[in-house]
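thread from #wetlab-drylab

HS: before we spend reagent money on co-crystallization trials with EPU, can we at least see a predicted complex? here's what I'd submit
DV: go for it
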Amino acid sequence: MNEYVIHGGRPLHGEITVSGAKNAAVAIIPAALLVDGVCRIENVPEISDVTLFFSILEELGARVRVLNRHAVEIDSRNITSTTPPYELACRIRASYYLLGALLGRFGKATVSLPGGCNFGGVRPIDQHVKGFRAMGAEVIEGGYIEATAIDGHLHGASIYMDMVSVGATMNVMMAAVLAEGTTTIDNAAKEPHIVDLANFLNSMGADIKGAGTDTIKIRGVEKLTGGTYSIIPDQIEAGTYMAAVAAAGGEVVLHNIIPKHMDCISSKLEEMGVEIEEGDDSLVVRRTGELTRTNVKTLPYPGFPTDMQPQITTALALAHGTSIVTEGVWDNRFKYVAELKRMGAHIQVDGKVAVIEGVDRFEGTIIKACDLRAGAALVIAGLAAHGTTHLGKIEYIERGYEDLVGKLRGVGADIRLVDTPEDPRPELKII
Ligand code: EPU
């Protein structure tokens, strides 16, 4: 059992290099199964979700050669199974991408998905299934999702997504690259990782146009052949460190950034009084004065990202005045607020809306993470708090943040990873 011990109240000063994007990596790595050749993938984040995917691919018969901390070579020429092992696949939400990749290449896939999730109740995949069915697959949903192309391979189709879904857009894109004919996805998601997946697949020989717009057209090709690709920087990791500077104060230079991807986050932080200077592939984030209130509503890209909602809520809980944060993507993503309140935050949650009365300071206490971004938000709270915070259930955080402790220590934070024999924290209650 590990926890983070944070002695808060120190402004952050220094430089942080942002890693490759988690939500691009967890799509691109399974997408390597579509390639009848060898692909070298660079700027891969060193996080547990990625390591888990490497194990899954190896179990399916791929050869995975880790070249260094951030580069891997995946050879999917000799895949022997289209059924990822249950005990690995059900540990990672993004294992749904194995459906699109395996179905697209081999015409069949049997994948067990995780059950309910910590912030969305059951996370539906009806739009993924609708897409596969439109392309000619039979999909049986039970403990496992079993998808089979009725005549051996998929056909191009026109698919209108009933809601903007990152996962469904990427999954249908994967299924369509080797299908016969052209697939059109309307009302597609536009996140930077959608464009990154399309760029990866195109660099391996696919023909995808329009990624990053509402309509994506995928003309099926016979084969993907391999190549080299570098994953984009992580917009949410960068945004998390920006929110940390907002809450704790100081000045940090973030390297390995695509500034355009940060606009939706930067503009909100600027409204709060944080100074941001853009370089070509870097950002300077500075907070010296008081934070001011603002309202935030999370939306699909280019709106404010839901994966930054807990972090900005935490910073707003230290801002002067009353702020309103509305969660526009997930049903139940304010669970962590109970822990922030134990640190002194004044926040009332009613369904998808949080009303936040800014306070002058948080007090350190014993808390625990309930999911990845909630965990990151509680780290930020600990950095800004007076006294010592003990944050448990940090395995959620390690799923998606590379070397969080090292990066924060590098900018002067007093945060340590400590081995604790027993976790004294009771189960979190939603209040
Ligand atoms: N939805 C449906 N049906 C579907 C798919 C989605 O109703 O078939 C609904 C969901 O319930 C949700 C909304 O549509 O209300 C958006 O869900 P989306 O499919 O976009 O989410 P996702 O693909 O499952 C990815 C990220 C999440 C991020 C969301 C939204 C990955 C592995 N996960 O999830 O990231 O919150 O997009 O941007 O890429 C995180 O990184 O912490 C994280 C949770």
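DV: The pocket of EPU is lined by residues 23, 26, 93-94, 120, 123-128, 163, 165-168, 189, 306-307, 329-330, 372-373, 400 (CB under 6 Å).
HS: ok that's useful, forwarding to the group
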